[in-house]
Amino acid sequence: MRIAAVSGSLRSASSNASLLRAVALLAPDDDVVFIDLALPWFNPDLDEDEPPPVIAELRTTLRACDAIVLSSPEYAHGVPGVLKNFLDWLVSDGLLVDKKVALLNASPRSKFAHAQIAETLRTMSWNVVLEADVNLSGRKLDAEGIAADAELASIVRGALQSLRDAQ
Question: At what angle do helices 111-123 and 81-90 cross, to 10 degrees?
Fold first, then answer.
């Protein structure tokens, strides 16, 4: 399975990014592609005949993936701007309809944004297969630590299995 990993955080030490790197460690037979959210700001005027090259490449990469695993922090009870910008660039691309996605929530404090992301993806007609809480709060685990933790690894493996089993 080819999986796009999307972190809603740009922080280098992000627990969400660590969680997605753990996905790659726990899915050694899968091809995990990390998506860079350093994108131009969404502007519908730029998304007409030919989008910016970075957006065309992003869409091509996502279309080639079987599924997406997304993990994001919450800022002021909302979706981080970079993640919303990413999603805005994908609204007009009907080729992502029914794309399988698993939402992994790294913090129990991130309930508002998590629900908003799920609602946005459903509005875009993506197939939200699973919403799972992976509580990393206060644990300061890197990807290897997450993959080595039996409980956390079980949640991640379950998310991957849900994506494989989804129609």
Answer: 10
